Amino acid sequence: MRRALAVGVAVLSGAALWGAGAVVALRLLRGEPVAPGGGDTGEAAQATGRVESEERAVLAHVPAGSRTATDEDAEAGPDRDEIARLCGGDYHPYFVRGDLDGDGRLDFAQAFVRERAGERLFDVAVFFGATSGGFRRPVLVETGLDLSAGDLSIDRSLLVVTPDLAGGDVLRYRWDAVRRRFVDADAASAEPDEESPAPSPDDRPRADV
Q1: Tens digits of residue pLDDT in 141-158
Q2: In terms of pTM, does the model score above 0.85?
Q3: 163 part of a folded domain
Q4: Domain count, the chain
């Protein structure tokens, strides 16, 4: 199991590096500044993995009754230790960045935590990069998940939510530019669900923060 996990993570890491390289190349072609690690120029990565502009965006949009998920919310285990080793120690289970809408700008996903009757629930949101260099209002991807034993990752342009690193289902989401929301990347049909409510204004990436 551990060997299979290591191979899988290595493949995903390679894909993520390829995607990050494409983003950096696009930034260079546009004449935009690129700092080591994909962060904003002059910004030092914090213990959370977020750079200053990402931290500002998160703090400005923590949902009411929630808090930002931290590394301490993750249950320890051999699978998580192996991922951290493969990532060179730069592993944050509930924060991940990449280009999720294919516009050449770095976006990031962040989990938030709600406590309900002694139960810890995770909500996942994506912050799209804005042309101004900041980030747009977060788009809610999924709510009410148990991610204590899981994490977030990115496979090319897909957001991957793993509830349990030891096994079980993996949830994959892609950004649907027409429907303006994240949808199940593995759904049998990509046709719009007429019964599904349209995303609220706060769920749509509009204003820069």
Answers
A1: 999 999 999 999 999 999
A2: no
A3: yes
A4: 1
